[in-house]
Amino acid sequence: MTQNSSPNPTVVNPEIKLEDVRKDVDGNSCEGRGRSTASGRGYNAERLANAIFHDLGLMIRWSVKSYVDAYISGEISYYVEVKSCVNRYQSKTGNLGRYGQFRIWKSHHDRLTVESSYSDLKTAIYFFVVYSVTDGIEKEVGKLIAPVEMVDDVLDNWSSEDHVTMGEQKTRQISWHLLLKRLGVSTDRFKSEHIIDLTDE
After folding, report:
1. What residues form DSSP beta bridges with 137?
2. Which of 94, 110, 111, 140 has its CA 20 to 30 A from that of 67?
């Protein structure tokens, strides 16, 4: 893993895409605790997060704690919360429906916020990736990283939902389109750049 010594996480391989991970790990494979209910595409998003920060671009799932999706070590360490969603849901008629949504669990979000405020040597960021699906194969639309504090500023209207392992929890579902708008990022920029890095803005 890249040894980070700057105040911002170092993106080493911004050009690696979600479809590269799918090809490298032979599809949407799940592994480890929770694999029976996990999303293969979600697991690949975690592999992608590790790969873009890794010197060798290794497409692995690894972290230091069970509630952290990816980890960047160094003088300043980063906990990475990974979120992925489809570009557009498919309607009952087969046409494109509403924009895909990220689901953010409040308990995880609050824990990341605490981690960021606890020490100057450890902080937390979100890694968002959006993909389209054609014939069952996903293709990356765009990806973005942002400080947890910046994401916290755009979240509202938490609601209760039953989680398969955690029970009833507060959650916020927000479309990627609305999230970008609230973060001040245009969809054109999101789709055209390898990665949007809001940690240095």
Report:
1. 134
2. 140
Q: Which of 69, 63, 68, 45 is nearest to 1 (CA)?
A: 63
Q: How many CA atoms lie within 13 A of 73 on its CB side?
A: 9
pLDDT tens digit string along 45-63?
Answer: 988 998 898 876 555 555 5
The residues, ordered by sequence, that sit 6+ positions from 92 with a Cβ below 8 Å of its Cβ are: none
Contact of 131 with 18, CB cutoff 8 Å: yes
Nearest-CA neighbor of 82 among 42, 110, 140, 55? Answer: 42
Specify whether the CB–CB gap between 87 and 102 falls below 8 A: no
As a three-state string, the secondary structure of 88-102 is EEECCCCCEEEECEE
Angstrom CA distances, 134 to 21, 88, 96, 138, 139, stand at 16, 11, 12, 6, 8
The number of beta carbons lying within 10 Å of the beta carbon of residue 108 is 17
In the structure encoding, which two tokens stand for residue 160, read together? 């209760």
Q: For the whole prediction, is pTM greater than 0.90? A: no
Question: Which secondary structure element, helix H or strand E, spans residue 181, and what is its range?
Answer: helix 176-183
Q: Cα separation of 10 and 112, whole Å?
A: 19
Q: Determine contact, residues 143/127, Cβ cutoff 8 Å.
A: yes
